[in-house]
Amino acid sequence: MRAVDCVERVDLGEVPYEDAVRDMTDWVGRRRAGEIPDRLTLLSHPPVITYGSRTPPAELPAGLTVPLVPVDRGGQATYHGPGQLIGYLVLNLRERGPGDIVRWVENGLIAACADLGFETVRRDTPPGAQSLAGVWTPDGRKLVSIGMRIRGGVTSHGFALNITSDLVEFTRFVACGLPGVAMTSLAELAAEQGRPAPSEPEVRDAVARALGAR
User: Do residues 158 and 50 lie in contact, with contact meaning Cβ atoms separated by under 8 Å?
Assistant: First the structure.
């Protein structure tokens, strides 16, 4: 996948999930029409659990502690809430050329984590197994969830990076279709290193640099 000079960075605050999806649908149409450049939008959501059409009902929480919202992206159920950085990527892949967009995102986020002082890795998914897309610690905890959609050559949705997320919320359902998966956050990893967690602005800047957005 070749580099594209301009990825527009858009910084938002906390946006309700349904509002963000409505706006993202508009951005995709405008990107396809050539009205806007490739775009990385950084934001957060109030508490919500989103899930794809292939998510088995048994993997969703039995008691509704937060809203459940079906989505049209890849991936299974995941939690969004305060302390988490969401990145929505609207990219024209026809202009970028052949390549694995999910791997590109994984590698970019791994570079961002390294810039912040954290070692992370990507994992290949064995044939026939549940997807391991995302960013992981070397000891097998999941830091970043990735779920994207491609339609008409343009991507939507993106990633969720836990900064100071309430990790208990991920234990109320089967996160990412992976029973027993251990989720982590930059705050947890920083505490293990005996240092403060990076601030959200620091994480936003590191992610934007790594993905070529400005």
Answer: no
Report the distance separating Cα 113 and Cα 102, nearest Å.
16
The residues, ordered by sequence, that sit 6+ positions from 173 with a Cβ below 8 Å of its Cβ are 49, 59, 60, 61, 77, 79
The string of pLDDT tens digits covering residues 32-77 is 999 999 999 999 999 999 998 889 999 999 877 899 999 988 789 9
Short-list 136, 30, 153, 27, CA closest to 88: 27
Paired strand residues for 68: 49
- Between the alpha carbon of residue 62 and those of residues 20, 58, 172, 173, the distances in Å are 26, 8, 8, 8
Residues belonging to the active site: 176
SS (H, E, C) 120-178: CECCCCCCCCCCCCCEECCCCCEEEEEEEEEECCEEEEEEEEECCCCHHHHHHCCHHHC
What pTM value is reported for the model? Answer: 0.94
